[in-house]
Design the sequence.
């Protein structure tokens, strides 16, 4: 049921295919010259890693656009750089209306619908109980700070499960971090230490 985040594309008057996907050429450049779109702003990826890899690939095209523009222009083709996914017809307005009061399990790619009574597996039951009753989850986010003399946006995840209502406060605290020396960050929240571990640098 996910759709690409297209607000920036809309504001830049970039045409959208199927009302969702911005139109790009084989180098992820839009019809606005020098404006590139990739990742989940272009099309939904099954894994966050795939969106990141696509971003790295597009960074290479941007370098070529800036440093070797004539080569970039000669290699430019008007075809999509990715395979189109089939739109699942059952994920319509009615489907989302029927989801009210339920949760989509995010533990595995199957995405089971959980209603508090029926579960396809014990992991789905655990997820639902934490999400609905305990309202706890590990927080995955990014920290923009200096590490080994370089400013980076570092993806991190909390070691402990945290009350979902505290996410906003924790993100604000992480935003205040300007420099780290190792890949573990400690944040004190309500007299409790929350440990964040970098997942990639």
Sequence:
């Amino acid at each position: 049921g996910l759709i690409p985040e297209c607000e920036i594309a809309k504001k830049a008057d970039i045409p959208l295919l199927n009302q969702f996907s911005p139109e790009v050429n084989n180098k992820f450049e839009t019809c606005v010259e020098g404006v590139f779109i990739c990742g989940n702003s272009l099309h939904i990826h099954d894994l966050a890693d795939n969106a990141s890899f696509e971003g790295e690939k597009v960074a290479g095209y941007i370098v070529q656009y800036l440093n070797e523009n004539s080569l970039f222009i000669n290699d430019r083709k008007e075809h999509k750089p990715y395979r189109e996914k089939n739109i699942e017809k059952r994920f319509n307005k009615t489907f989302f209306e029927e989801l009210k009061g339920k949760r989509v399990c995010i533990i595995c790619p199957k995405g089971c619908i959980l209603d508090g009574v029926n579960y396809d597996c014990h992991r789905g039951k655990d997820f639902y109980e934490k999400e609905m009753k305990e309202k706890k989850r590990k927080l995955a986010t990014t920290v923009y700070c200096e590490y080994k003399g370089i400013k980076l946006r570092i993806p991190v995840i909390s070691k402990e499960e945290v009350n979902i209502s505290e996410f906003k406060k924790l993100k604000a605290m992480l935003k205040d971090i300007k420099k780290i020396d190792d890949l573990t960050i400690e944040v004190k929240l309500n007299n409790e230490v929350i440990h964040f571990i970098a997942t990639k640098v």
DSSP finds six helices and eleven strands in the chain. The mean pLDDT is 87. The first helix runs from residue 7 to 11. The CA atoms of residues 94 and 109 lie 22 Å apart.
